[in-house]
Each structure stands twice: as C-alpha cells, then as structure tokens.
Design brief:
single chain; globular; about 150 residues; 7 helices; about 60% helix; mainly alpha
C-alpha cells in the first residue's frame, strides 16, 4: 500500500501528476492577445472574401510575431474560430475600410509588443506576392554556390 502513495507523492512533487498536456491559451502570455486579434481579423477577412486584408494579416504575422509553434497555433485557431463564427451566424461583413482600419490598429499593437521581431522584408505584402508565370527568382550568392 505504501508504494502507490510514495509514487503519488513523487509525481506530485515533480509536477507530473498535475501537468496539463494542452497548450496554454492564457492571454497574459506576451503578445497572445495581439496575435489572437490578428487571427480573428484574418478569419473575418477570409469569410468575407476580403483576400487582400487576409494577405496583409498573414504578412504581419510572419513579419512581426515570434516564429514559434505556440504563436502560429494561436493565430490559426483564432482564424478558424472567426471564420466559422462569421459563416455560421450570418452577420453582415464589415466594409473593407472598416476591416483595414481594425487591421492597422492590430498591426500597431503587434509591432509595439514585438519590435525586435520586425522583419520589414517579410512584413510587406509585396514581398510575399506571387511571381508572374515564367519569372525566375534570383538567389543570393550564398545559395547559388557562387
């Protein structure tokens, strides 16, 4: 009878017995609220077929948020939830100007939280624009082996 009690005490003291296997969605984490808002705007833009706004939201996420699984998952989860909510309840879509203004406000908040992660080359939508068919992409010298 003593072995299970001792095992339980050891597990409790190491924290293994109470460890939560699900990732935290605590809004007190640095930048979680800003990333969640950006994902929500992305989902609304997708549901309302405002693809330019959605592209801008993704570019902001890539250019300013840390490149970790937690932030990426949070962005995708918020995007999916907002998309499903917008398509399910049938609320009217915001105007492009309204959604763009909300995105600009969200971008300012994200940049304020993560100024060190700013990558202007990736943050602009033009940098991630698709190349025209037949156009060759130039590689830096270190990638061509020259």
């Amino acid at each position: 009878m003593r072995f299970p009690i001792l095992t339980g005490l050891v597990l409790m003291s190491t924290g293994l017995a109470v460890a939560d296997p699900t990732p935290s969605t605590d809004s007190t984490e640095i930048g979680f609220a800003e990333v969640r808002t950006l994902g929500t705007l992305n989902g609304q833009a997708l549901a309302c077929r405002q693809f330019d706004t959605s592209s801008n939201a993704k570019a902001l996420m890539i250019g300013h948020a840390p490149k970790t699984r937690r932030y990426g998952t949070l962005f995708e989860t918020a995007t999916n939830a907002a998309f499903l909510a917008a398509t399910k309840d049938g609320t009217p879509c915001p105007t492009e100007a309204d959604l763009a203004a909300r995105l600009a406000k969200s971008a300012a908040a994200l940049k304020a939280v993560f100024p060190e992660h700013a990558n202007p080359e990736q943050a602009s939508p033009e940098a991630s624009a698709p190349q025209p068919p037949g156009a060759e992409t130039s590689l830096p010298n270190d990638e061509t082996g020259s």
